[in-house]
Amino acid sequence: MSFRIGVLVSGEGSNLQALIDTVHGRGGMEIVCVGSNNPDARALARAEAAGIETGRFPAGSYGSREERDAVLASWLGERRVELVVLAGFMEVLGPAYIRRFRGHTVNVHPSLLPAFPGVHAIDQALAQGVRLMGVTVHFVDEGVDSGPIIAQEAFDPVTYSRDIAAVERRVHEIEHRLLPRVVRLIAAGRVRIDPENPRSVIVDEDGVGDD
Ligand code: GRF
Q1: Of 7, 15, 46, 159, which shows the fewest CB atoms inside 10 Å?
Q2: Residue 125 CB: number of other CB atoms within 10 A?
Q3: Does any domain span residue 211?
Protein backbone atom coordinates (compact mmCIF):
# COMPACT_ATOMS: atom_id res chain seq x y z
CA MET A 1 0.00 0.00 0.00
CA SER A 2 1.59 3.24 -1.05
CA PHE A 3 1.25 6.65 0.61
CA ARG A 4 -0.92 8.60 -1.84
CA ILE A 5 0.01 12.20 -2.57
CA GLY A 6 -1.85 14.87 -4.55
CA VAL A 7 -0.10 18.04 -5.68
CA LEU A 8 -1.72 21.39 -6.56
CA VAL A 9 0.14 23.80 -8.83
CA SER A 10 -0.35 27.05 -10.74
CA GLY A 11 2.81 27.73 -12.69
CA GLU A 12 6.30 26.57 -13.51
CA GLY A 13 6.28 23.45 -11.34
CA SER A 14 9.93 23.26 -10.30
CA ASN A 15 8.82 22.12 -6.83
CA LEU A 16 6.56 19.50 -8.40
CA GLN A 17 9.56 18.34 -10.45
CA ALA A 18 11.65 18.00 -7.27
CA LEU A 19 8.87 15.84 -5.79
CA ILE A 20 8.65 13.73 -8.96
CA ASP A 21 12.42 13.25 -8.97
CA THR A 22 12.97 12.48 -5.29
CA VAL A 23 9.66 11.25 -3.79
CA HIS A 24 7.43 9.75 -6.51
CA GLY A 25 7.69 5.97 -6.66
CA ARG A 26 10.18 5.81 -3.79
CA GLY A 27 9.87 4.61 -0.22
CA GLY A 28 6.23 3.61 -0.73
CA MET A 29 5.21 7.15 -1.80
CA GLU A 30 3.28 7.91 -4.96
CA ILE A 31 2.05 11.16 -6.53
CA VAL A 32 -1.34 9.99 -7.78
CA CYS A 33 -2.65 13.26 -9.23
CA VAL A 34 -1.72 16.87 -9.97
CA GLY A 35 -4.41 19.56 -10.10
CA SER A 36 -4.22 23.16 -11.23
CA ASN A 37 -6.33 26.31 -11.27
CA ASN A 38 -4.34 27.32 -14.35
CA PRO A 39 -5.01 25.03 -17.36
CA ASP A 40 -1.80 26.25 -19.05
CA ALA A 41 0.57 25.68 -16.14
CA ARG A 42 3.90 24.22 -17.26
CA ALA A 43 3.67 22.06 -14.13
CA LEU A 44 0.85 20.05 -15.76
CA ALA A 45 3.14 19.10 -18.65
CA ARG A 46 5.75 17.95 -16.13
CA ALA A 47 3.14 15.73 -14.44
CA GLU A 48 1.95 14.30 -17.76
CA ALA A 49 5.54 13.58 -18.80
CA ALA A 50 5.88 11.54 -15.61
CA GLY A 51 2.65 9.63 -16.38
CA ILE A 52 0.71 11.25 -13.52
CA GLU A 53 -3.01 12.03 -13.87
CA THR A 54 -3.81 15.74 -14.13
CA GLY A 55 -6.94 17.82 -13.52
CA ARG A 56 -7.80 21.40 -14.47
CA PHE A 57 -9.95 23.50 -12.13
CA PRO A 58 -10.03 27.14 -13.24
CA ALA A 59 -12.21 29.10 -10.80
CA GLY A 60 -13.93 30.90 -13.70
CA SER A 61 -15.51 27.63 -14.88
CA TYR A 62 -17.56 27.30 -11.69
CA GLY A 63 -20.45 29.27 -10.20
CA SER A 64 -18.29 30.33 -7.27
CA ARG A 65 -14.87 29.77 -5.76
CA GLU A 66 -16.56 27.75 -3.00
CA GLU A 67 -18.07 25.40 -5.61
CA ARG A 68 -14.70 24.96 -7.33
CA ASP A 69 -13.01 24.21 -4.01
CA ALA A 70 -15.65 21.57 -3.23
CA VAL A 71 -15.16 19.90 -6.64
CA LEU A 72 -11.39 19.96 -6.17
CA ALA A 73 -11.68 18.42 -2.69
CA SER A 74 -13.95 15.66 -4.06
CA TRP A 75 -11.52 14.96 -6.92
CA LEU A 76 -8.65 14.54 -4.45
CA GLY A 77 -10.85 12.50 -2.11
CA GLU A 78 -11.94 10.12 -4.90
CA ARG A 79 -8.26 9.44 -5.56
CA ARG A 80 -7.81 8.57 -1.86
CA VAL A 81 -5.12 11.16 -1.41
CA GLU A 82 -3.60 11.15 2.10
CA LEU A 83 -1.51 14.30 1.68
CA VAL A 84 -2.03 17.31 -0.57
CA VAL A 85 1.02 19.42 -1.38
CA LEU A 86 0.53 23.00 -2.55
CA ALA A 87 3.61 23.48 -4.71
CA GLY A 88 3.25 27.00 -6.07
CA PHE A 89 -0.56 26.91 -5.95
CA MET A 90 -1.38 30.62 -6.11
CA GLU A 91 -4.96 30.70 -4.81
CA VAL A 92 -6.31 30.55 -1.27
CA LEU A 93 -8.47 27.45 -0.71
CA GLY A 94 -11.71 28.16 1.15
CA PRO A 95 -13.64 26.27 3.87
CA ALA A 96 -15.14 23.74 1.40
CA TYR A 97 -11.62 22.46 0.84
CA ILE A 98 -10.14 23.01 4.31
CA ARG A 99 -13.00 21.15 6.07
CA ARG A 100 -11.97 18.01 4.19
CA PHE A 101 -8.16 18.29 4.16
CA ARG A 102 -7.17 20.21 7.30
CA GLY A 103 -4.05 18.61 8.74
CA HIS A 104 -3.47 16.84 5.43
CA THR A 105 -2.35 19.80 3.29
CA VAL A 106 1.05 21.48 3.28
CA ASN A 107 2.35 24.55 1.44
CA VAL A 108 5.81 25.84 0.58
CA HIS A 109 6.31 29.59 0.95
CA PRO A 110 9.38 31.67 0.05
CA SER A 111 9.79 33.58 3.33
CA LEU A 112 10.41 32.95 6.99
CA LEU A 113 6.76 33.02 8.10
CA PRO A 114 5.03 34.72 9.80
CA ALA A 115 7.02 37.46 8.00
CA PHE A 116 5.87 38.28 4.47
CA PRO A 117 2.83 36.07 3.84
CA GLY A 118 1.02 36.32 0.50
CA VAL A 119 2.41 37.20 -2.90
CA HIS A 120 5.78 38.86 -3.71
CA ALA A 121 7.32 37.62 -0.46
CA ILE A 122 10.89 37.75 -1.80
CA ASP A 123 10.55 41.33 -3.10
CA GLN A 124 9.01 42.43 0.20
CA ALA A 125 11.81 40.88 2.25
CA LEU A 126 14.49 42.50 0.08
CA ALA A 127 12.71 45.87 0.21
CA GLN A 128 12.58 45.56 4.00
CA GLY A 129 16.34 44.94 4.14
CA VAL A 130 16.06 41.88 6.38
CA ARG A 131 19.26 40.00 7.25
CA LEU A 132 17.56 36.62 7.26
CA MET A 133 15.45 35.29 4.42
CA GLY A 134 14.30 31.75 3.88
CA VAL A 135 11.70 29.13 3.12
CA THR A 136 8.82 27.76 5.21
CA VAL A 137 6.82 24.56 4.82
CA HIS A 138 3.60 24.69 6.83
CA PHE A 139 0.20 23.08 7.26
CA VAL A 140 -2.57 24.92 5.42
CA ASP A 141 -5.49 26.46 7.28
CA GLU A 142 -8.14 28.95 6.12
CA GLY A 143 -5.77 31.92 6.32
CA VAL A 144 -3.05 33.16 3.95
CA ASP A 145 0.19 31.28 4.73
CA SER A 146 -0.91 31.17 8.37
CA GLY A 147 -1.00 27.49 9.37
CA PRO A 148 1.32 25.68 11.81
CA ILE A 149 4.97 25.69 10.72
CA ILE A 150 6.63 22.33 10.02
CA ALA A 151 10.08 23.32 8.72
CA GLN A 152 12.11 26.44 7.94
CA GLU A 153 15.54 27.13 6.51
CA ALA A 154 17.19 30.55 6.51
CA PHE A 155 19.99 32.29 4.64
CA ASP A 156 21.61 35.74 4.66
CA PRO A 157 20.67 37.65 1.48
CA VAL A 158 23.83 39.77 1.81
CA THR A 159 25.77 36.65 0.76
CA TYR A 160 23.95 37.05 -2.57
CA SER A 161 24.47 40.86 -2.67
CA ARG A 162 20.69 41.21 -2.23
CA ASP A 163 20.47 40.46 -5.94
CA ILE A 164 16.92 39.27 -6.68
CA ALA A 165 17.85 36.66 -9.29
CA ALA A 166 20.55 35.14 -7.08
CA VAL A 167 18.25 35.22 -4.04
CA GLU A 168 15.48 33.50 -6.02
CA ARG A 169 17.90 30.77 -7.11
CA ARG A 170 18.88 30.23 -3.47
CA VAL A 171 15.20 30.11 -2.40
CA HIS A 172 14.43 27.49 -5.04
CA GLU A 173 17.43 25.39 -4.13
CA ILE A 174 16.22 25.30 -0.51
CA GLU A 175 12.59 24.65 -1.51
CA HIS A 176 13.52 21.72 -3.71
CA ARG A 177 15.19 20.04 -0.72
CA LEU A 178 12.95 21.15 2.16
CA LEU A 179 9.55 20.32 0.62
CA PRO A 180 10.43 16.72 -0.37
CA ARG A 181 12.01 16.25 3.05
CA VAL A 182 8.78 17.29 4.80
CA VAL A 183 6.73 15.02 2.52
CA ARG A 184 8.98 12.07 3.42
CA LEU A 185 8.64 12.87 7.13
CA ILE A 186 4.84 13.05 6.89
CA ALA A 187 4.66 9.81 4.89
CA ALA A 188 6.78 8.18 7.59
CA GLY A 189 4.35 9.38 10.29
CA ARG A 190 7.01 11.63 11.84
CA VAL A 191 4.99 14.88 11.90
CA ARG A 192 2.19 15.72 14.32
CA ILE A 193 0.53 18.71 15.91
CA ASP A 194 1.55 19.25 19.55
CA PRO A 195 -1.51 18.23 21.63
CA GLU A 196 -0.55 21.01 24.10
CA ASN A 197 -0.34 23.75 21.45
CA PRO A 198 -2.18 23.51 18.10
CA ARG A 199 0.22 26.14 16.62
CA SER A 200 3.20 23.93 17.26
CA VAL A 201 4.32 20.95 15.17
CA ILE A 202 6.40 18.09 16.56
CA VAL A 203 8.79 16.59 14.01
CA ASP A 204 10.78 13.43 14.63
CA GLU A 205 13.65 13.60 12.13
CA ASP A 206 15.60 10.56 13.40
CA GLY A 207 16.73 8.35 10.56
CA VAL A 208 14.85 10.09 7.73
CA GLY A 209 17.43 11.20 5.16
CA ASP A 210 17.34 13.81 2.40
CA ASP A 211 17.01 11.38 -0.49
C1 GRF B 1 7.78 28.84 -5.12
O2 GRF B 1 8.76 29.80 -4.91
C3 GRF B 1 6.87 28.71 -3.93
O4 GRF B 1 7.50 29.03 -2.74
C5 GRF B 1 5.80 29.72 -4.21
O6 GRF B 1 5.62 29.67 -5.59
C7 GRF B 1 6.82 29.25 -6.22
C8 GRF B 1 6.45 28.11 -7.12
O9 GRF B 1 7.52 27.74 -7.96
N10 GRF B 1 4.62 29.41 -3.41
P11 GRF B 1 7.37 26.43 -8.88
O12 GRF B 1 6.07 26.56 -9.67
O13 GRF B 1 7.38 25.24 -7.98
O14 GRF B 1 8.58 26.47 -9.78
Answers
A1: 159
A2: 22
A3: no
DSSP string, 87-117: SS--S---HHHHHHHTTSEEEEESS-TTSS-
- CATH code of residue 91: 3.40.50.170
Q: Residue 49 C-alpha to ligand 1 middle, in angstroms?
A: 19
Which atom belonging to ligand 1 lies closest to the Cα atom of 175? 4
Question: What is the distance in angstroms between the CA of the first residue and the CA of the last residue of the chain?
Answer: 20
Residues that are catalytic: 109
Lowest-pLDDT choice from 64-68, 165-169, 204-208: 204-208
pLDDT digits (tens, 9 = 90+) for 114-132: 999 999 999 999 999 999 9
Give tens-digit pLDDT for 23-55.
Answer: 999 999 999 999 999 999 999 999 999 999 999
Tell me if 208 is assigned to some domain.
no
209 in any annotated domain: no
> What is the CA(196)–ligand 1 centre distance, in A?
32
Q: Which of 175, 177, 179 to mutate to test the pocket of ligand 1 (most atoms within 8 A of CB)?
A: 175
Going by C-alpha positions, the residue among 102, 81, 57, 97 that lies closest to residue 7 is 81
27-31, 80-84, 207-211: segment of lowest average pLDDT? 207-211
Say how many Å lie between the CA of residue 87 and the centre of ligand 1.
Answer: 6
Structural domain total, the chain: 1
d(CA 105, CA 16): 15
